[in-house]
């Protein structure tokens, strides 16, 4: 936010408030870091800082029991050669914008606030982060039609569209505990120790009510259960109620391009300092077979 404090203290005109172009590399890294630090869920997944609009995310799917013994001077046969299977995904970032403004009254009230520039920058980054996290759960496509859900495909939609991911359904009458037990049974054994179940708080409450009916009301008083069959819950209101995703959290990726563009100008008619932040982002699930998604039939 170059020179915002100077603008607050000096005379304001169309020349000294206009600012267009990209953030510096340091500012871009800081902007992305603040986005992540101000959102509890984004702190737990992988955020990929991208130098360009596309980027390959590689992982290796290594078979088990591939160690062999080959005598000196002999060549391994085909069955003895270990096959490292390359898996992964590709980030293809598209732009999203944040439009914001600071009214003249707020500018005048903060003339003597030395932290106003940082507070403003952090507020923009926090708003950006909250929306990026939400879009990761409810985004349905990247064919923007004017609605929030069509800005990007979020993680859930990426899993839905993948032929490698596990997809399960349940009947509306089925208990939450039975749904989650089936979900756990579908988790790839290679990552079962790292997996988390992303679940809405309402579903966790229903699950604990079912457990208390089997045990005692004291179960609820003591805080209830936050896992099933050894798989911890990742409880978030961002997850749609009645939908469950089991995967390692670091398997979920938010890509953000470091070329972050910002425009600033003063609107005399509205008496407000206006900003547009233009950021290129994408969502991916690196290893699709490590994701199990359950929804109502």
From TrEMBL:
Organism phylogeny: Bacteria, Pseudomonadati, Campylobacterota, Epsilonproteobacteria, Campylobacterales
Protein name: Phage capsid protein
Organism (species): Campylobacter concisus UNSWCS
